[in-house]
Write a structure and sequence with these properties.
With 225 residues, the protein is of the alpha/beta class. It has two domains: 64 residues, Ribosomal Protein L25, Chain P (Beta Barrel); 148 residues, SPOUT methyltransferase, trefoil knot domain (Alpha/beta knot, 3-Layer(aba) Sandwich). Strands 6, 7, 8, 9, 10, 11 and 12 form a seven-stranded parallel sheet that branches. A hairpin with a 4-residue loop joins strand 4 and strand 5. Helix 2 packs parallel to helix 3 and helix 2 packs parallel to helix 6. The radius of gyration is 20 Å and the shape is elongated. The model has no long low-confidence stretch (mean pLDDT 91).
């Protein structure tokens, strides 16, 4: 049975013209013909089975055939992560999107030496959502310094932080509320940053071992789920 590809599309009208990259992927990579089927989705309209109606030199036109499912969400999961190397940052966005993170907050800390392009991260999140079957695309916010972020924590989340070498052995509890988790950089948090986190968040214990930032992020989000 042929795999049915999924694409995120912002507005699903009855007849839809796919964008350049989607059209190229269907025709040049997957060798689609008129009459073949694909899936289009977004959190507003839901997910639809669509049929290729017309293929031109420039694009592909598809038509909605049947609604497959609607979007529902029980709670939000936020991840605030200190920016690390680009390949590992990509891994965080990709895997944590698959695990259900709804909001990403890139953070600059004292030991952060990298920058991020939020547009590129958004493309990674879209691709991960297409692959894993979710209907929404996570929000990716602009980078903030850690101290500024902690001063204006989004109030609709219970915020937790994983601080290395902290004596607490409190395991991550199951929460039904919106959860936000803060993960440090490769060099860990500075002492002033640890104090700010202790004052503004609840602490969680992930492992007796020292975890890489991307491992800590994936581990924490897995436990929340």
């Amino acid at each position: 049975m042929r795999h049915i590809p999924r694409f995120y599309f912002e507005h699903l009208n009855e007849s839809i013209t796919l964008n350049d990259s989607q059209s190229y992927h269907l025709v040049r990579v997957l060798r689609f013909k008129e009459g073949d089927e694909c899936l289009l989705f977004n959190p507003i309209d839901g997910e639809f089975l669509c049929k290729v109606e017309k293929i031109t030199k420039k694009n592909v036109q598809v038509k909605k055939v049947q609604k497959i499912k609607s979007f529902t969400i029980s709670r939000k999961i936020a991840l605030a992560f200190c920016i690390i190397k680009p390949t590992n940052t990509k891994l965080i966005i990709e895997k944590c999107t698959e695990l259900g993170v709804t909001d990403f907050f890139p953070i600059k800390s004292q030991y952060t030496n990298n920058n991020v392009d939020t547009k590129k991260l958004n493309l990674i999140a879209i691709s991960a959502s297409e692959q894993c079957g979710r209907l929404d695309i996570p929000n990716i916010y602009e980078t903030q310094p850690l101290d500024m972020f902690l001063k204006s924590l989004p109030s609709n989340f219970v915020w937790l932080s994983a601080i290395e070498h902290l004596e607490t052995k409190k395991e991550l509890e199951v929460h039904t509320e919106n959860i936000g988790i803060i993960i440090g950089p490769e060099g860990g948090f500075s002492e002033p940053e640890k104090q700010l986190l202790l004052e503004n968040t609840k602490q969680i214990f992930l492992s007796n071992n020292i975890l890489r930032s991307e491992t800590a992020a994936i581990s924490a989000i897995s436990r929340v789920q």
